[in-house]
Fold each of these.
Amino acid sequence: MPLLVMLVGCASVPPARIPFEEAFGRPPSLAAMSRKAPTDPRTSAQLHSALFTFSDRVEAARLHATRGQKMPKDNADAWLAVLGELDLFLVRTPAQTSPFDVARARLVLQSQLETDAQLYGDFPASVAEGAQRSLSLLSARLTLVTPVQRFVDLKRFAWPVQPVVITSPFGHRVHPISGQYRFHSGLDLLADPAQPVRAAFDGMVVFSAWNGSFGKQVELQHDPRLTTRYSHLQTLLVPEGAKVKKGEVIGLAGSTGQSTGIHLHFELMRNGAPEDPEEALASSRNGTSPGFPQSSSQTPPMSRERVTAWP
């Protein structure tokens, strides 16, 4: 019999044309994170400050915005300012660059870009093109400065929670906020409140803090190409710079950020581009693909529930 689960995901559906803050509540800003930069001596205080300022400015610009409107000038100006700071930062050689700076900058840009894409109906071309260019450059730089040099086989990765119940799959779907057909860059995995979330494989913690709509988030760098992300955590249990082993508890599942319930948003990235964790991790279990239970009239149609059995 198929296991029935309630739909939980990365955001709830707000009524149309109401202020963003009223729909979601204002999430803790980047300033809610510790303003103390990582202890790496290569850390850029200028970039660190620019990211906080950028986050505060775009969040302030959203306070009275309505969904579907054109991006206001204050928001666009904040984007152009931080993109300029990133251009200056990326002039540094890899030897002068902290991997924590690169990971933090990439995560902040991705999170704020996703939030703005949910809210605004029109982006200035300079913002859209500049953001994508900076994200590509940051991903390339992270592969050069990562302290993890050996390459690992994805077949050795494990699921971060068990049993594995996928409530929203990787790929294009109707976005639960905008109602638009959009890309979901990870998997939503059902979890119990405060359930331990474990590292999919050995790696270094390159980010462990609040990250906008993703709430409390951990990013692990496994090799120069591969990273995994664990979002909406209730509790962070590892600091940036820590080395963790496969299966080590890195946080507790929660519903922080924009989330409809307790779950884990799990992402697998290769050179900054998302890949389907289900395909990668399914092959790690004797080449057996996970089962796909039949839909039930009691299961919300957008959940596309999937259950993966452990060996």
Amino acid sequence: MRFFSWGAECRFERLQKTAFACEADAEAALQAFRKQQKLTVVHDAEILARPRYSRKGRPGQEQTPEAYEYYLQGGLASATAIYQEKLQRKSCFIIATNELDEQVLSEEQVIEHYQKDQQKVEHGFRFFKNPWFMASTVFLKSPRRIMALMMIMTLCLLVYAAIEWRIRQALQSQNQTIPDQKGQPTQRPTARWVFQFFSGIRLLRISQTQQVILSMNEPQRAVLALLGNRYVDLYANSA
């Protein structure tokens, strides 16, 4: 079974048809080709010297060559061990947990919980790709900064999921609902909808020490009450 690409095979064929001025140039070209390959190895490689004559046609017995040209010759083979290693690595993914005690949560239970809630997890990470998150507007070249941004985005997703869970749990435990996007009562709103639900609220600053929150309605106050007194206090001076 071959794992090397058709492009690598074509490049190696062109390389074998290339005439080099010396053996060192041919060897350098061969090494450069090998460094470019990830799943391909060159086997039975050798450098052949072929005479070049000034006249066309078959040279005579006493005719001496004008110069020598050097050609590569060999074959391609698949690096199966490297391929299997890369395949195995790409077939794995990381499941992380902050519960380090295996007596409380075993490795098998981690996988079981992930498979049970896999759809929820993938739904959350799909939020990263949503245009509303505007992650595509940030361009970072440094790998360290990309990793830092991913850490911040994951933290934001954690807060996003925690708020969503807390609101849903409170709605179900108190048997209450809030209107969804279509105005229908729901006990399972998304955090994104809750954020949009609070759009339109304005802050009126009367003086340096006095400010009033405007345009608050009763459904918004109900959501704040579900989240707790700390959230209610943030919107206490509302009108």
Amino acid sequence: MTRLREYISQGKSHDAVLAAFVTDMGSEMLMSPPDTGFNRLAWLLPYAFGAAGLATIVLTARRWSRPSTAAAGGADVTLDPALDARLDDELRDLD
């Protein structure tokens, strides 16, 4: 605490005091990495991953909530007559 009072009595600004502490003790004494150089990537990546995850969730939810064209009757489905007859026979045997 005495170092801080010395820096303030010398008339150093907030940034100068912070720089002096980083010089004395290293950047580990900071609560968060400084927003310069490579450390800027440490700030940017979590937001980028969050945005990509949110976009994936939204796109997947929209895709799942829309009815498919086959279910809506929009697709022209042609069945093999032999398979259709076999299915009818199997269903008739179930009764």
